[in-house]
Amino acid sequence: MSTTPPTYRLRQIPAYVERFSLVPFLRQTSASFDLVGEITVYSLAPSVGDWTRPPSQTATISFHANPELLWGQGNAWYFQLSDQQRPLEMDSHFLDFTVLNSVSEADHVVDCIAISGLASHPFGSWRYRQPRAGAQGASLNFMWLRDSLPWDVKGIRVLIYGYDSRLTHSHSFQTIDDIARGFVPMLRTIAPADQLKPIIILAHSLGGIVVKSALLRLAEMPEKEHILLRNIRSIMFFGVPSKGMHVGHFLSMVEGQYNQQLVKMLARGSMYLSDLDAKLSQVPCYRLMRLVSAHETETSPTTVVDANGKWTRDGSHEILVSPESATQPGCEPTDVFPINKDHSNMVKFAPGDADYARTLAYLRWLVNDTASQARDIYYGDRQTANDQDIFDASGAVYDWDAELQAVASDPWPLGSWAQQPSPVHEAARPDDQTRPHEDHNADHAILDAAEEVPEHSKGRNVDHAILDTPEESPQHSEAVASSFAGNDKMECPYCAIKFTHRDLKRHLLTHNQENPYVATRAAIPGRETTSVTDAARSLRQPTHSPAISDSRTDVPYGEPNSINSLSNDDVLEAGGVPTE
Prior knowledge:
By secondary structure, the protein is of the alpha/beta class. It is built from 19 helices and 18 strands.
C-alpha cells in the first residue's frame, strides 16, 4: 500500500524567504512548526491575487508524520508569526489558484493553467498515484505539473485552479455555469491587465466544460474586457466530453442530492453540451485558439457501494468518454492524440511516462506557436506612422504564409529535460540536484481526483469522478461540426481574403485591434511579394529584432482560497470516493 504523505499548500510566506530557508524560518517564527517533525518543501513561488498588498509566496509542503497541529476538524489552518501582520495560511483543499513554480521576469514566456474535473482534487488529480513496482511501501511524491513541466519547457509558469466538485455528501446546487462564473474573476488575478502573458489551458473532464463556459462568459463582456480572452491562445482537452459521457454510476452517488442536475448536464445526449459548442463556434476569439484533444483508450472502473456502505471503484469497467466525444469541435485532425490510460489516470503521469512525453511534445509545440504569434504582434506594433500611410494607400496583399514561416524558423528557445532542484528536506543542501520525484512514492486513486486525506480529515468525503453521458442529437452535432469545418475556405472579415481555417487564425493576428482594416505586420525586405507593385509598397523592416520581453516591474502577488485533499486509501477508509 502506498504511504505517500498528504501535500499541503502554505500561503502568505514573506517574499524575502528563500526555498532552502523556509523550514528554518517556520521553526523560528512559529512555535507550532517548531514542534513538528521533518518537513519537506517541494515548491515555492510568488503568489497571485491582490497586488495592492505586500508581496507573498506560496509553497507546497508535506510532513514526514502527521503533526498534532493538524489534528482536529477542518482543512485549513492559520499560524500567527511573531513579526508578521498576516498569519500563515495552510490548507489541503487547494481552492482557487496555486502557482507551482517560480520563473524570472526575463524568462517568463507563457502561463499554463490546469483545471481538474468532477469530484476532483485540484492537486491530486494530476499527481501520480500508482505505486512503483517493488517499492515495498516507499512513496513517490511526483506531480508532473510541478516536478517536470517547468523544467521541460523553459519560461512557463504553471498554475492549478481548484473549485468544489464533490459528489457525495454535497449540499451544493451550483451549475457548470456557476462554476465558470467563479472562474472568470479569478482569471483576472493572475496578472495585471497590462502585464498578462499568453495563456495555455490544460483541462480534464468537467474542467474543460467549465473552461468553455467561462470563455463564453468572457465573450459576452464589453469589448474592453476582451484582452483576457485574446490572451488565451491554446487549450489542451483531456477526456473532455463534448458529446457527453457515461454517468450512470455517478447519478447513483448523487441520487436525491441537489447536485444531481450538474451530473445530468454531462450525460450523453446533453443539450447543454451541444448548445455550448454551438455558441462557442460563433465566438471569433475561440475560433482563433489552437485546440488539442486527448482521449483515453482504456476502460474505467465504475463506482459501487460495498458491504460497509462505502463507495468504491470496484464496479464494471466502462468507456467513460469515447474518442468521438473527447475530440472537440474545431480541433484539427493532427491535434488529436490518444493516452493509453483510463479516464482518471490519463492526467496522472509517472516520471519518464511515454504518455507524458507525447503530451510534452504537444505542449512545446503550443508554447512555440504562442511565441511565434507574439513575434507577429511585435512586428505590427513597431510599424511607424509613415508605414501606416503607405500601407493604407496601397492596399497591398502580402505573402502571409511565407512571412509566418520565416518567423517560425527562429523558434523561441524551449527547455530540455534538465535536472531540477530536489524537494528541500531539513538536511538538504542547496547544491542538491536530484529530481524531486526520486525521494517519494504515491497513493492509488479510487475515482479520479481525490488527493491524500490527513487522519484528522477522515470522515469527510472527497469524491473523484469519471463521467459518462448520453448522446446529443445528430442534427445538432452536424450543425456544430459544420461551423468548425477546417477544409472550407473562410473569408477574413477585415480584408475579404479567403483562407483555410488554420491560416485564417494566423492571418487575423496581423490586423490591428483598433483599426482592423489595416494590417500592421511589416513585410520583410527581400521577400518575394505577390507582384512588382506590391514589392514597391513593401514596408521597411523594424529596427529592433522581435522578442518577447516581460515589461513587468512588480510580480503580482496575493492570496487564493482553499479545498480538501485526500489520498485514495484514506478516502476509502472514510467512506469517500476520489474521482478525476
